[in-house]
What does this fold into?
Amino acid sequence: MALGGMGGSVDSGGAGSVAGTELVLAGAAGQANSDPQTLELSGDITNIHDPQVIEAQGRYYLYSTGEGILVHTSDDLRAWTSAGQVFATKPSWVTMTDAKDPNLLWAPEVSYFGGKYHLFYAASSFGSQNSCIGHATRAELGTGPGWVDSGKPVICSSAANNYNAIDPHAFLDEQGNAWLAFGSFWSGLKLIALDTNGVRLDTVVTSLATRANTAVEAPYIVYHDGFYYLFESVDACCKGAASTYKIMVGRSIDVTGPYSDQSYVALSAGGGTLVLQGEGRWRGPGHNAILHTQGKDYNIYHSYDADNAGIPTLRISELSWAQDGWPISAGP
It folds into this structure.
């Protein structure tokens, strides 16, 4: 999750669905953006970690890591206003957060399927494998009270598992089946099946990606023009302007993989095509999500501002698709 991991991280599966519709996969119906740009953002955009944006009824909602899960809103995707938090206090079942900061919850993502909004989030402490992914729902998207937590985790990890149950990403495949990707360090990124209520469907855990240094996390999967694209964040986050975090991608014709990069190296063997890395003022971009809205795709991520004490800051860049199908972000 960007704040988690071993040393370190909508509409989901694509982002951009609108209330009253089923999930829309990013890029599935979009056109390639010509000359993509990075948006000029204003308002409450600092101290944003692990961002994800979903659009509902003409408004954009941003969810990010923070006390009780931070919420921001925007009417134009550019000017952002703080809108409080999801939980006033952490759900009672959450016992694995740091005792010094017990209400800190990580890497939230909201998606719409099965007739309601689903919030998946991670509960852990920095560097710990004692982690769980939680799940809450609501009928209509808005700020303030309304989210109802399930009261139990979707999946957990411990020393008995060779993975870390953080950085959740829920999405629908092209057949309408629900999935949850997750993972940070240890043996890498994983995938499990969900039912239409957002509950884990079976005991199968599919491996998607890893790296020799194990520094891989924050999976995000979208469908575009015949392929599933698996975005991942690799290397070191959470070090301010010294962060080496960057975003890589691979693709597959099957949602469960195998995913390979442009050189046909499997992500399960450490492959990955570079999407975005730090440059100039903006360092360590990562934990990305994809939003499809108004005929365009956008890359949502945080980056560390070298001109402002390395503070994690919201970044939104247009995302285009090359003729061979690979994504191009306008970042950093």
